Amino acid sequence: MSNQATLTKKDFQSDQEVRWCPGCGDYVILSAIQKHMAEVGADPSNVVFVSGIGCSSRFPYYMNTYGFHTIHGRAPAFATGIKVANPELDVWLITGDGDAMSIGGNHFIHALRRNINMNVLMFNNQIYGLTKGQYSPTSPEGKRTKTSPMGAIDRPFNPISLALGANSTFAARTLDTDSKHMAAIFSAAHKHQGTAFVEILQNCVIFNKDFYNDTVAKDVRAEKTIDLIPGEKMIFGSEREKGLRVNGWNVEVCSAEESDVWDAGTESSAPAFLMSQMDDDPNLPMPLGIFRSVDATCYDKAVNGQVEEALAKEGPGDLKELIWSGNCWEID
Amino acid sequence: MTTIQQPGSELPLQQLENVVIRFAGDSGDGMQITGNQFTMTSALAGNDLATLPDFPAEIRAPVGTRPGVSGFQLQFSANDIHTPGDAPDVLVAMNPAALAVNLSTLKPGGLIVVNTGSFKATDLRKAKLETNPLEDGSLDAFRVIPVDINQRVLDALSDSELSKKDKARCKNFYTLGLMYWVYSRPLETTMDWLATKFAKKPDLVSANQTALQAGYNAGDIHELFQGRYEVPKTDALPAGTYRNINGNQAVALGVVAGAQLAGLRPVLGSYPITPASTILEELAGLKRFGVITMQLEDEIAAVCAAIGASFTGCLGVTSTSGPGMALKGEAMGLAVSAELPLLILDIQRAGPSTGMPTKVEQSDLLQAVFGRNGDTPMPVLAASSPADALEVTIDACRIAVEFMTPVIFLSDNFIANGSEPWLLPDLDTLKEFPVEFATNPEGHRTYMRDEKGSRPWVKPGTPDMAFRIGGLEKDTDGNISYDPDNHQSMTDQRHQKVQNVANTYPPTEVVGETKGDLVVLGWGSSKGIITQSVIDSLQAGRKVSRIHLRNIWPLPNDLDEILTGFKAILVPEMNVGQLARVLRSEMPHQNFISYSKVTGQPFLVSEITEKIATILEN
Between residues 261 and 290 of chain B, which touch chain A (CB distance below 8 Å)? Predict the structure, then answer.
């Protein structure tokens, strides 16, 4: 990141007309990212937004940075090639629940395990929007859609659990209606060295309107969610009177005073996994915030490191020497 | 090791022009190593040669069974040769299955060196033989040299500390030593190879070297041969420095050379697949050349990562075979739409589906030329031999960067694993094609075109040049456009750009008369076989010419006019007539005769020669 602190949010807006539905959560996310980039003084020439296919994947067209709108589900593989080819680039991957969890599930998990130094923003609206309203791999069981008229039978993926299972070094969840929270999470993700996976709960006003309101609507959010902040006590409730603590293999509600301090950097990802599984328990709040943040080798650096190591050990390759190697013979 | 006198030097020495030898044994018998060692030694002895490795896809099929047979055929010659030979003069059979599988290819009266130690009742049963071919008269038409190689190796290694099992594994070198004696070849190359190969296991070096020497010295067996042979060095090859090279090695070198000539870093995204995996292996070992290799999670990720690297300003490369090509189709379409350079290396194998992974076929041609959604034109080139693969790879790199397009390079199993003497090129004669990245925002548009129809390449990271591209139809600025006229225009521009590639080809070469009754139009690895067939036909008084296509798509501009000089055009292919189909659709007025073979084995010279004769006689 250069010292072009004079840039504003506007400098990150492209001249393209934004074509999302009025009221779509994507607008707020776009705005939050543009604002974040300006605030950290990012150099637009050094930033690449990569996406797959879906509503969210139109994102790169609206950023005044380098952008590559690729094919369905494969964005992590493109981003891998981009980041390995030039580790200096600031790479952001924009994807959705269908793109990342379904058609691109394989690439998603492998990008996480390789720990490519990039940011993955997954817009989760629990529905296929661009194909007009079919259930997605994160739609809850029983969800009635055009392709599940009697209710979805599939058991959904929990994106955070999946990411943790793939050895993700950074996993967080945020919300399209809370710009401040998004800003904090984007900032932490951007600082993280490795694949920073951020699930953004995002409203699809046409096909899955307010799907998350039972949990995150203003009037219930304080009771139904908890913000995981590393190094701080796990506290929630409208009066911030309740807390969470880990008891054996379970998480339980306790008083704020009795709550545990959240550690996102434990050697084992088990605590983070426990937290991610609270989504399914109606008696526990759904966590937002940072589930996990640990350091590990980044593949992009390591690949280039091996090239440098070979160069240092063996000296730069000479094509003539290579071609003339092995058993040669002369014919007069 | 002291040999005062050449063993068997009292026996007569006969000069031969060329020999076709086939080593056959169980997959675990080391036949590929044996064949490669014989090849290397013959190359250093100055012969021209061509090889045909023929092995199963299974790593170790059940021992002694027919599916487990691994073969290596080699022709070495005092003359200029073009093929591994139709029929072996000599078959070395390490077990009954190897004998049974290969006997039908052997020349009448040919020589069979057979390991009698592996002809027990259980061995015969495994090979599904009801009677013992050594006793039932089925080998009467051949000269059989029976040797109990199993026992002789154990005898030769009686002083070795190795286990009986490890001693038995030296039998291929005993056999090799014996064949070196028969063909008057020196042992040094293989002795040195063993010393290097097993440098960390001196007992294995010593045992295998002892076995090699023992085979060479086996005087009582020599008596059975009644003499030895010598194939003098060839004077048919041009002067210069040579080495052996197989097709996949050549491709790997071609990627390194091509990227250097373009001034780019090569980035290979790949996924292991037979018979392309060795390209990834070779390039993974060339990091000191700045080569980046990534073994991705699947074929799709492999091509996508390569395209990502091209997007970033490197030379993206992906290597695969037919099934992988099918998986990569959508991503190739993105590279066509985004107009990014990309080198796609397709080492074809027999299909459909998983097909026969280690057998040769040319059946990806239509997939390469047309196998994508939408109107998605892409240049396609095909190598004709291991040595040719280097040059064609370099040319594919050139086309990719000069025209900002993905390019498909076709090779096949015969080229990938076959080897031939390679006259080392003068690197200074290779023409550079340096890439100039666009850096000036003044008047720049993402899809503006130069005189070739190509668009500028901008490296992300360049100030004030930020662009957004993707697989949606775009306008000249790269912005999304569903405008009807724009889509027509962009489709036409992409098509014209690929057509323009043909303007950079050298004139198509006709070998022989430029007019006549018949020309053989070949492509890919059949070149050597077609060449020999045409030579044989001319010697038999049949007038026939030959053209070999390197550029499959777009076809050369001068091809139609050249073909007009011939009444008929024979197109031999190891598929059901895929090139012929393309040619007929492009030149419906020409008389194409398709000749198809899909056995997983290359054409025989005799097959094409007979076809030529039949056409000319009718």
Answer: 265, 267, 269, 286-290
